[in-house]
């Protein structure tokens, strides 16, 4: 991976606490795509940029073996600390140098991580390690299209959220912008003729105010801002939480609001 922004122990802990597990319905679409293109058995999946393992664990029941790979050993320590499936192995590594033999992987996947990859090197490795008809599945979410709802103050909550995005915009890296484009450049570069995009997969869930603020604290641009102004960053989070609660007329940060998130997915199958 060309960028190394999430390696510290503190950031790994924040990821474990506040990053969202992708919707299970989108996972089902990925497995159905693999069933259609390659068919069973599903022996080996590799989850790239796996972080603390939310997406890895979601996929685990569908494969004989799944390997989560991340550049950050701190992230992987958090992933290993979660009790769960015995078929998961976590390994330090990158998407550009995969520790697998040629033609041995059924599925290469990444959740909210592919925008950090070196595009050409990753695609060369994908072509090398995938089995014939093996699949790529790269998913992410579009943060610009978030919708927050609570009684009659949804518009005000959304406005606060967008103000935070705008404030942190100067600290946003080019790869994050690539994710907001739904990985269009990466999709165009995939050499397999059999590929498709899910442009919009809507997902609704309830989330507490404190967890939403915690999610903001996991952003790469927030951490870039925090490195420049630690106290300002801490004050920003406290102010966001207070503004949310004031608009909602609520006192507890455990108060839940409805969030609607838009996900996307890039799918491709290696030819025979």
Notes on the structure:
It contains eleven helices and seven strands. Helix 1 (9-18) packs across helix 4 (73-80), helix 6 (154-168) packs antiparallel against helix 11 and helix 10 packs across helix 11 (230-248). It is α/β, with parallel strands linked by helices. 42% of the residues lie in helices and 26% in strands. It has a seven-stranded mixed sheet, with helices on both faces. Strand 2 (65-70), helix 4 (73-80) and strand 3 (88-92) form a beta-alpha-beta unit.
Descriptive labels:
272 residues; alpha/beta; seven-stranded mixed β-sheet; elongated
Helix/strand order, N-terminal first: HHEHEHEEHEHHHEHHHE
Structural class: alpha/beta
Estimated radius of gyration? 19 Å
Work out the helix count. 11
Intertermini distance: 28 Å
User: Share of helix among residues?
Assistant: 40-55%
In this structure, how is the largest beta sheet organized?
A: 7 strands, mixed
Q: Which sequence of strands runs across the widest sheet?
A: 3-2-1-4-5-7-6
Secondary structure tally: strands = 7
**What spatial form do the alpha-carbon principal axes imply?**
elongated
Approximately how much beta-strand content do the residues carry? 25-35%
The whole-number mean of residue pLDDT values reads 90
- Unreliable stretches covering 5 or more consecutive residues: 1-7
Short overview:
The chain has eleven helices and seven strands. It has 272 residues and is an alpha/beta fold.
Helix and strand topology:
Layout: H1 9-18, H2 24-37, E1 44-48, H3 54-59, E2 65-70, H4 73-80, E3 88-92, E4 105-111, H5 119-129, E5 130-149, H6 154-168, H7 174-180, H8 184-189, E6 194-208, H9 209-217, H10 220-228, H11 230-248, E7 256-269
Helix pairs in contact: 1-4, 1-9, 6-11, 9-11, 10-11
